[in-house]
Amino acid sequence: MPSDSLKYLFDIQQACKRLNTFTNNKTKQEFMINELLRSAVERQFEIIGEALNQLLKKDPQWASHISHCSRIIAFRNYLIHGYADIDDEVVWGILETNLPILTREITSLLNDSKADKQSP
């Protein structure tokens, strides 16, 4: 696997970890009223979407390993270009529903790449 691909996977993994850290023990109501938290969450989703976009440009075969990759990239574009219309309920729903799946998939891909490096 090219080192650029690993870097993008690592960046996605780090953004997922930050999202989990930022929102750990937070309720949807706390998220809704905390402007700083919402902004931090949106930024990490932007990083995830951009890293995934770059990864797919360099290695398109990764699309089959990441659920809803085109939707993740579209969400990043929505956050950046449609910032005035962001629905915090949607963002919270993605945190609860989709982030755990992405976290598992990225962790698995990175673990597989480590195992590949260690194989003779």
Give the low-confidence spans. Answer: none
Number of strands: 0
Shape descriptor = globular
Which structural class do you get from the secondary structure elements?
mainly alpha
Q: What integer value in Å does the Rg equal?
A: 15 Å
Q: Tally the helices.
A: 6
Average per-residue pLDDT, rounded, comes to 92
Report the portion of residues in β strands: under 5%
Reading the helices and strands in chain order gives: HHHHHH
Number of domains: 1
Largest sheet: none
For this entry, what is the oligomeric state of its chains?
Answer: single chain
The residue fraction in helices comes out at over 70%
Termini distance? 15 Å
Describe this structure in words.
It is a single chain. The protein is mainly α and 120 residues long. It has one domain. 78% of the residues lie in helices and 0% in strands. It has 6 helices and no strands. The protein starts with a helix and ends with a helix. 20% of the residues are buried.
